[in-house]
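A quick aside before the break. I want you to see a complete sequence-to-structure record at least once, exactly as it would be stored in a machine-readable document. Don't worry about memorizing anything.
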Amino acid sequence: METVKSLTSADIYMIVTGIVMGTTARLYTMRIDLRQIPTYPSAYFNNIILGFIAASLGAVAVPALLAHDFVAVTFLTVAVQQFRDIRTSERESLEQLEETEYVKRGEAYIDGISKTFESRNYISLITALLSVLAIKFVSRFTMITGIAAGVIVGIAVLLLCYRFTKGKSVGQFCNVTIGKMEVRGSELYVDGMFVTNYLGTELSRELFRTGGLSAVITPRDPRSRVTLENEGQRQAILFEAVRALGLVRYKFMRRDLKNGKVIIALVPIVNDPERLITSIKNTPILENSRKLHRIMKTPLGGQHG
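That is the input. The structure line, written in tokens, reads:
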């Protein structure tokens, strides 16, 4: 209670500004990565509240130190554990929903999404903390100047953190084009490449003739092909494609062993070629499938110690 009583109006302005900047950081990252939010509006609201809590913890850290309340700073360690629990909870939730999806996300994609949820809370905390720190240093002139400095620093920290944590997408490594489908008896070909021989009924053949859609994903270089060869990465691409268009029935994915091309063929609910290409290009590159250029250049993958 002593710390609360010692708070001045300047401290309150600092804390409120820090909370606003930290919460804004969480809102901004959700707007950028909307596909990482699985449900509406519950999960959206939950993440706003979690961002608010993370921002509050970061905002009160500096005033607590200045008030010599070092015990209060230990709540930051509690916050770290809480954020880890959020990652675990999100992973478990997505795993339980796997059976209800048109196509499974896959374990690799779920792991990436859960880590994203965790990292976004750290961005809120750091943005709030550094905003308050900037206000404290500059507010000795005027409080308005201090708040302005805090807002500027908060925006800069948010942009830097987001750029640092933002991953690559498939469109940065591969070319994506719409493929030309051809049904030959019970076999399906896309751009002359064999996809499947499971079209044994007239219904399946008619569905692909009248409403089928396909895409060809071509890696731009050997390093990109290594990334695309990852099974978890291909599963994530198929999931995003199907989620964007829906699925009437049938979805196939075939990998060309000669050139590394990956073919997706499906009968979607929404037959929109541009949306299919966009969804594939925007699929994030998973951490376990991405290969750093400097490592790929090292002989035998890294014998230099």
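Two observations worth writing down. DSSP finds twelve helices and seven strands in the chain. The chain has two domains: 2-166, 171-289. We'll return to this after the break.
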